[in-house]
Amino acid sequence: MPTANDLLADLRAAGLTVVEEPGWKTRGGNWAEGGKPTGVCQHHTAPPNPYPIKALYRNNQIKCNMATHEDGTLYLVAYEACNYSTGRGSSVVLNENVRAEDPPRANAITRRLTDDMGGNRYFWNYENSHPGDGSPLPSIQLQTIVVSNVVVNAHFGLNWKRIISHAEWSRRKIDPRWNGGNRTAIEQIRELVGEGEDVSAGPNGEPNWNEVSSWAQNSWTWAWTNSLITEDSHPKAQQTVEQQMVFLNRYDGRGPHPIRSGSGGGGPGSGE
Ligand SMILES: [Zn+2]
Questions:
Q1: Is the per-residue pLDDT at 175 higher than 90?
Q2: How far is the CA of 246 from the centre of ligand 1 (A)?
Q3: Which end of the chain is more exposed for a tag (fewer CB within 10 A), N or C?
Q4: Could you list the residue range(s) of the whole structural domain that residue 209 is in?
Q5: Ligand 1 centroid to 206 CA: how many Å?
Q6: Which CATH number goes with the domain that contains 222?
Q7: Span from the CA of 263 to the centroid of ligand 1 (angstroms)
Q8: Residue pair 138/181 in contact by the 8 Å Cβ criterion
Q9: Spacing, Cα 211 to ligand 1 middle (Å)
Q10: Concatenated DSSP letters for 18-44?
């Protein structure tokens, strides 16, 4: 079985700035099935921003597994299942979208779905610090969400088709909502994670190094060219770019790729 230590190593190998919250490796309860999450659920925190991380697991209310901040930092909060996160939502989404690997095309409220089951134990939850007002998400933060989600999926044997938004899960929710709206927010994540997963697998299942590199390179370049941030407002952004270059230099042309090979059998093709 993959472990919290394996996940931590892969996230760092991918060049992310990772902060471990005390106790994260054992925080949380049992997963609903198979000893691992069935899917991934994305959220925004709402204000205050940047959101105080300690408030995400205060009084044994575990609100997420990972959190991201506007400067691109990734926080590890809980490796096991949350108890105060996805909440009640629709069994249609779990069965016909997540398990069937056919992502939702609309929010639960639009589909007139009913919140008929609890979802906490089925999803790996992300709390992303953002006001949820449709305003732009810093590109460096989106990069952290996307790259870490590629790593999480490989770790648990999931893929981009199992990523949903809270708004897709429950008619009570609108999150995450940035870059114009909540449809844009979740579709952008799925598209970018899917790109990362596609180029990472070669024709014989081996990593396609040139494509992996160009994806990573392009995504980081994209983080800057589409950037709504500046070095003044986000001094860590340059640091993250440099870490990414270290990642590329270390792994370009040399196997095995740390994300795709994984450790303990969490890679693609296993588990499902
Ligand atoms: Zn939410």
A1: yes
A2: 34
A3: N
A4: 4-251
A5: 36
A6: 3.40.80.10
A7: 30
A8: no
A9: 34
A10: EEEPTTGGG-SB--SBTTB-SEEEEEE
